[in-house]
Amino acid sequence: CPSSPKPPNSPSEKCGTLNMTKITEHGKKVRKNWTSYWTILRGSSLLFNKSQGGGSGWFGREQKLEFSVDLKGGSVDWASKDKSSKKHVLELKTRQGMELLLQSDNDNCINDWHKALTEAVNTHAWE
Ligand code: I3S
What we know:
By secondary structure, the protein is mostly beta strands. The protein is built from one helix and eight strands; from the N terminus they run ββββββββα. Strands 1, 2, 3, 4, 5, 6, 7 and 8 form an eight-stranded antiparallel β-sheet that branches. It is globular, with a radius of gyration of 14 Å. The N and C termini lie far apart (31 Å). Bound molecules: (1S,3S,4S)-1,3,4-triphospho-MYO-inositol. The site of (1S,3S,4S)-1,3,4-triphospho-MYO-inositol has 6 residues, from loops. One of its GO terms (cellular component) is cytoplasm. It comes from Triplophysa rosa (Cave loach).
C-alpha cells in the first residue's frame, strides 16, 4: 500500500496514493478523468494533492493541493459494477452534489480507505 508514516502532530491523518475521478459535479455528470493523487484524510476534509517531482511520502517531495472535498453530510460506499470496470472502487458523494470514484489495485489499501472514510463521514455527519 503506497503510503508513508504519519507525520508528527497529526495523529488523525490518513494518507496514501489513490486513483480518483469525478463523475458528477454540481449534480451534473462529467467525463471521467482517472488521475493518481496523494490523498490525505484530515478530519472531515479529503485533500487531493499532485506530487511535484520525485521522491515519496512526506519528505522528499513537494505537494501541490489540487482540490479538496468536505465530507460533512456526505456518504461513501462500494461503487456498483456499472460505475466502473475497475476493481476496488469506492463511490463518494458530497453534500455539494459531487460524486467521486476512488480506486486502488491494492485491496488492503482500499479496504483501509473504506473504513477511514466511513468513520470520517459518520463522525462528522451532524456537524
Ligand atoms: O464509464 P465509462 O465512460 O466507460 O468510463 C471510461 C472512460 O471514461 C474512458 O475514457 P474515454 O473518455 O476516453 O472513453 C476511461 O479511459 C476509462 O478508464 C473509463 O472507465 P473505467 O471503467 O476505467 O472507470
